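We were asked to recover a plausible sequence for a given structure. The inputs and outputs are reproduced exactly as logged, with field labels preserved.

PROBLEM: sequence recovery
POSITIONS: 394
GIVEN STRUCTURE:
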């Protein structure tokens, strides 16, 4: 107990110091002296992606104490690049783009209580989703804290931790990578220690330190039989990892596929666009819902490797051939230059420009709950429960 308390105090002090440093860096970014943004060519970037050999998706991805994406080297992690971003000029956004916000539906806990048996997907905020399947709860990237280390939420989560803990059912937790907006130690520590937790390679010890008793590490392409007719598959993502006082890429990053008798759901975590989505479709051709990160993508020269813009997230969905597209990773924290609601408008414009079938896009409000077809509600009678454009956009 004393050791855990000492670690908590050290972490708190470290976080405080890091925030001071980062606040200084952000203050520099507000100065009137701005650098020009480096040139970035989307056509060249897409050409590089399409030139990748799919065999590299199965190549070794660990060496010299670090994980890496074998299909394409990462251009990230440099303090110089980070400072260049913060000191560079920024795009000009319209008033509509600055003021766009996700819809927010209060009373999620009450609506869950009113559906004691139905399978569902609920968007709690950012990339945090609660999914119920065959009576079990699956919580992805639980983030209930007010800050992701530095950035403060613009929109709060649709459930409190007390409400989350009061929902009946066996709890399973899935974590995609160790960045602060996806792996929040305080949120994890407040959830049931009896929950099963599934993580990528390298994160088991950190999760166990939050009190969790049942932690399973998974590697890319690995499958686990979770019982009750459910399978969890760990899949690739094009990303990276780092936490304060931890070297970059010493833990893996991943996306996940959760297969049940009623529905197959892809959870993208956080990723840049890469040819892996085409390969997922080859192995798993019947994905029902694709939860794909769409946010923190400006400026493109800095964000393109690790985050997808609207065009790329829609392309990833098409690559996978999924039934429905649900965009996440927007509307909560401003992690890139773009305002938090900008991806909503960007997606709408992109869908119009590309003649995308909008019946396949479910742009959820935070706090929205979508029921998943099952024995009592078969796919043959299923219709999306809401229009593609949120009626609560402000």
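RECOVERED SEQUENCE:
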């Amino acid at each position: 107990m004393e050791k855990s308390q000492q670690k908590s105090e050290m972490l708190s002090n470290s976080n405080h110091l890091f925030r001071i440093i980062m606040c200084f860096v952000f203050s520099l970014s507000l100065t009137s002296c701005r650098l020009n943004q480096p040139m970035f060519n989307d056509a060249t970037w897409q050409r590089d992606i399409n030139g990748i050999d799919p065999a590299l998706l199965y190549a070794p991805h660990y060496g010299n104490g670090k994980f890496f994406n074998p299909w394409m080297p990462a251009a990230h992690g440099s303090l110089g690049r980070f400072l260049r971003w913060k000191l560079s000029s920024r795009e000009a956004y319209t008033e509509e783009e600055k003021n766009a916000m996700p819809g927010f539906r209060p009373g999620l806990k009450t609506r869950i209580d009113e559906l004691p048996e139905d399978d569902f997907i609920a968007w709690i905020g950012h990339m945090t989703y609660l999914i119920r399947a065959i009576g079990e709860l699956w919580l992805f990237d639980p983030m209930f804290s007010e800050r992701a280390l530095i950035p403060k939420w613009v929109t709060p989560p649709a459930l409190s931790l007390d409400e989350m803990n009061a929902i009946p059912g066996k709890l399973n937790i899935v974590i995609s990578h160790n960045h602060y907006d996806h792996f929040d130690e305080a949120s994890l520590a407040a959830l049931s220690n009896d929950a099963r937790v599934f993580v990528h390679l390298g994160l088991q010890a950190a999760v166990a330190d939050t009190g969790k008793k049942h932690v399973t590490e998974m590697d890319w392409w690995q499958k686990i039989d979770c019982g009750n007719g459910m399978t969890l598959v760990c899949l690739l993502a094009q990303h990276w990892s780092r936490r304060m006082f931890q070297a970059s890429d010493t833990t893996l990053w991943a996306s996940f596929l959760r297969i049940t008798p009623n529905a197959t759901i892809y959870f993208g975590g956080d990723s840049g666009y890469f040819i892996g989505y085409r390969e997922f479709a080859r192995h798993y051709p019947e994905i029902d819902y694709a939860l794909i990160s769409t946010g923190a993508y400006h400026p493109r020269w800095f964000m393109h490797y690790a985050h997808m813009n609207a065009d790329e997230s829609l392309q990833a969905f098409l690559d996978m051939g999924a039934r429905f597209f649900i965009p996440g990773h927007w509307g909560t924290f401003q992690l890139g230059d773009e305002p938090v609601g900008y991806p909503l408008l960007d997606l709408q414009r992109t869908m119009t420009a590309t003649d995308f079938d909008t019946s396949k896009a479910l742009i959820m409000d935070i706090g929205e709950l979508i029921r998943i077809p099952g024995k009592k509600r078969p796919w043959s009678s299923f219709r999306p429960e809401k229009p593609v454009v949120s009626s609560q956009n402000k």
